[in-house]
Write a structure and sequence with these properties.
Elements (H helix, E strand, L loop, with lengths): L8 H24 L3 H28 L8 H40 L1
Helix pairs in contact: 1-2, 2-3
Length: 112
Amino acid sequence: MSHGSSVSRRAVRERLNCALDLAKYAVQLDDMEDDHARSIEAYQKSVELLDQCIEMIKIRWNLTRWRQDEDVPGSIAQLETIRDNYKARITSLSFRANVAQKANAAQRARSL
């Protein structure tokens, strides 16, 4: 992504929409509470896409002129906050999955 021409608003918007769709899917999986691994994977893919969006916006901002009414730093900060929230959820789900796995292992050991 070294060329400004390859960083269109449309490309950023498409990647952002995909990231948010993945996050919605992760939340749905999360609500079911039975498949932490798939939820974590969806959140991780969403975080990767958000990182790409942030980078694309920074490149575009540095190489082109944005309209004066656009708050590019504010938009970047907002995406970083969303991304950080998803990362925190990944950490929480990973912890819960690990605790559940240890509890299941202990229960299996007791039943032997």
